[in-house]
Design brief:
The protein is an alpha/beta fold. It has nine helices and 15 strands. It has two domains: 151 residues, Medium-chain alcohol dehydrogenases, catalytic domain (Quinone Oxidoreductase, Chain A, domain 1), CATH 3.90.180.10; 149 residues, NAD(P)-binding Rossmann-like Domain (Rossmann fold, 3-Layer(aba) Sandwich).
């Protein structure tokens, strides 16, 4: 095994406003060796996620500390190629937060094994990974939708939102998505099976949202925040539940959006709970069992947008934050 080249993407500038490709540097490092109790992974796929932009905000440590010059944080799936760890063998496949790089060393913390025979490796970064777990936790553990209720999901064409809406359908609910553009809305309805999808870019967005939710909204799986969330607040029913998963519309702003309709939370007895899926890992076995079964049964569908090569990760990341992807945004490393 050659150890001359480990392609990496490092975080080199804290952006103010929109993130740029220049905020990253593609460089080469040494391929790590496994110390006692460690193993080395050849990463196959990298997951690009909105939380990574939040992690780049000064003073924010969303998951793990990120400092200028660090290898960029991110989840990967790959093959163990060297091991001095008793629980991980060469040839096994694992998933974990191993960063934007071709090769990573790990002591096993936060890493779990995956089966490439049961599902494509890339699926373990999407529908069978943290996005799927996030959707499952937000609905099943927090919002708890009941049959015949109306569930609204923002960023419905994305990796988390797409799964969340399908779980709502499985629970017997009316699922309404919010997405950007006619093509994404068509995908949400025609492929993912939502009952309706509203284009937030359309001039008559609020009117279309009202038409799609004639009985109001009982559950909001919120991924976007800002003006979209404001519009949803107007439609909430008494005792609605909001699972606050993300605020992607806010991560590239220099000043936060001034919310207009927060009084709806008080006036309508709304329960709002923010959550970080890393704090709900105890639910992973149950969630993965459900998700894998629904996927096998054909009740759960997904889509991937895949960039070719680690050097393309900065461009794909910026594009993902601008909404250029459909479904899960990945980078195929090798």
């Amino acid at each position: 095994m050659t150890r001359a080249r480990n392609l990496q993407v490092r975080y080199v500038n804290a952006p103010r406003g929109w993130v740029r490709e220049a905020d990253f540097a593609v460089c080469e490092g040494e391929i790590p060796r496994a110390a006692e109790g460690e193993f080395v992974v050849a990463n196959r796929y990298l997951s690009l996620d909105p939380y990574q932009r939040r992690q780049m905000m000064p003073g924010v440590e969303y998951a793990t500390a990120l400092r200028i010059g660090d290898v960029m944080v991110g989840r990967t799936v790959g093959e163990v190629i060297e091991s001095r760890h008793p629980q991980y063998r060469v040839g096994e496949f694992v998933c974990g937060s191993l960063g934007w790089q071709q090769f990573s060393a790990s002591d096993g913390a936060g890493v779990h094994k995956v089966d490439p025979q049961a599902a494509p490796l890339s699926a373990y970064l999407g529908v069978l990974g943290s996005p799927g777990l996030t959707a499952w936790v937000g609905l099943t553990s927090i919002a708890r939708p009941q049959p015949h209720e109306t569930v609204i999901v923002s960023a419905a064409a994305g990796a988390v939102g797409g799964v969340a809406g399908q779980i709502a359908k499985i629970a017997g609910c009316r699922a309404v998505g919010i997405a950007g553009g006619a093509a994404k809305c068509a995908f949400v309805v025609d492929t993912l099976g939502f009952d309706a999808c509203v284009d937030y870019k359309a001039p008559q967005f609020r009117e279309a949202l009202a038409a799609a939710t004639p009985a109001g909204i009982d559950v909001d799986f919120e991924n976007v925040g800002g003006a979209v969330f404001d519009a949803v607040l107007e439609r909430l029913n008494d005792y609605a539940r909001v699972a606050l998963c993300g605020l992607v519309s806010q991560y590239n702003l220099t000043a936060p959006y001034p919310m207009q309709n927060l009084a709806a939370l008080l006036n309508k007895n709304v329960m709002l709970q923010g959550f970080r899926v890393g704090n709900y890992q105890q639910h992973r076995p149950a969630a993965m069992n459900d998700l894998a079964q629904w996927l096998a049964d054909g009740r759960l569908k997904y889509r991937e947008t895949v960039a070719a090569g680690l050097a393309d990760a900065p461009r794909a990341f910026v594009g993902m934050l601008r909404g250029e992807n459909l479904g899960k945004q990945l980078v195929k490393i090798a």
